[in-house]
Amino acid sequence: MLISNKHFRTGFFLFLGLVQAHRFTTEDPQQIPKVHRDSAKLPPKFVAEKYGFAEGDKVDVSKANKIHEEAEKLGERAPNFFKVTEDEVLLLPEIFSTLDMEKVKRDFAKEGDSADELELRNSRWWGRLYIDGWPQTVQYLRAHFGEAPPMGERKIMIANPIDACNALDGDYAGAIVMARRGVCTFSAKARIAARAKVAALILVNNEEGNDHLAGPDAHDVGISVSMVAMVDGELVLGALEKRSAESGPLTGAMIPIHCAERTEALAGALGSDLCAPTTANDRAFAKSPMEGGRFSLSGASASHEFMIATFGVVVDRGLKYDLVLSDPQNGCERLVGGGDLTFEEFMDVKNNNATADQMAAAANSQYKGKVVVVRRGGCSFIDKAKTLQAAGAAMIVVVNSETSLSRFGVEPRWKGLVIDIPVVMVTDVGGDVLMGSMNQKISFELSRQVDAKTWESIAQVRSGDLKSSDLDKDAQSDIWPDRVAALGGTNAKSDL
Questions:
Q1: pLDDT digit string, tens, across residues 387-431
Q2: Cβ neighbours of residue 102 under 8 Å, at least 6 residues apart?
Q3: What element of type H or E holds 427?
Q4: Nearest Cα to Cα of residue 33 among 160, 191, 169
Q5: pTM, full prediction
């Protein structure tokens, strides 16, 4: 008799079989490390005493079947086995998940109750990865094993090797490390990452969707383990791979999110949004994202502001780019000298599925690797971005038609996930400077001093809904030429 599905405990088989069964059957059992044996998770007593097996041991199928038959005769609970090869199974622990469903339905912690805040934070099943300068947050789902996400802002690094199936090469201590799913088990990746002293391991899915990862032999791993959806994760991995050394590391924080039906603990503090970070510190961090910065031109002393779009990737602040003006200037048609490729054809080039002629056209585009300046209007922001990315742009700067800034985007959100270059907006004042500087280099610096809230307040002053004295004095300083121009102008035009 061969070991079959009936030898799995029903609940566990449904849980793990659907999530990860096919992963174990194709992986090398030698890559599954033996775990620390915790007496609280030992299999039934007769298995340990008679057969000498404990959690984490690999057992041949014939012996596993014999143990199941004996358990039935003795009226004992049968241990949990999981198939790793045709002839061998893994003796699983009795603890299947560190995520406790009973702790999900509760109120927020009261302000100042740090112990309850910590308990709430550590028990959340999901959260958002806030990356400084990234257009949007990235949702993560915690694994069924490992610790809660680390607190505070940390370096975000890419694993080397990218699959994290061998010892990581580099200094990863205390970092949030991203790696691709596949090749070896989740447990093996987690143990390798733990040996590199990472604070958290985030795996990028290799198929559509997201899930809570199973690691039946890794419940003693002392790091946080999570997974993000493939499209979001691949964008982050791509940005990490291309990031210049001069820019320094990406930084960000993993923020657990709690959703409550109603709240008495934070009544009035959250407004209508009852899905929010769990602690006061995390809420403060989430409220001050990196939304923009300043650009500078070589040889110029003044700098001008830019605002990040809600799609694309983070600005690489370590590079000095060549500037080029889009032709046509609104970027709504294929660019003259841009290779004459559609967005789909350009993606084929990127994925090495294009014809030789298409590859040559992309290589010879006069926009390749440059910051392309384009005027607002004529078509949607996402259509401009796709047209300019298809021409090989390294970054897109949209010149507004007025002296204002906003975080423009696209709905639904998934439509913007095809753009893998930075996209920003500058005012008409900043745009005029760029139009006359096509022979100069441009560089970008991120800053929390440039934010959507400040520019919303400036718009209210211009419309008469807010007094200029209500603005922060720094917002009216000469170091902010765009703001000075905006406040000295007439009522703002419609932002359509």
A1: 999 999 999 999 999 999 999 999 999 999 999 999 999 999 999
A2: none
A3: none
A4: 191
A5: 0.80
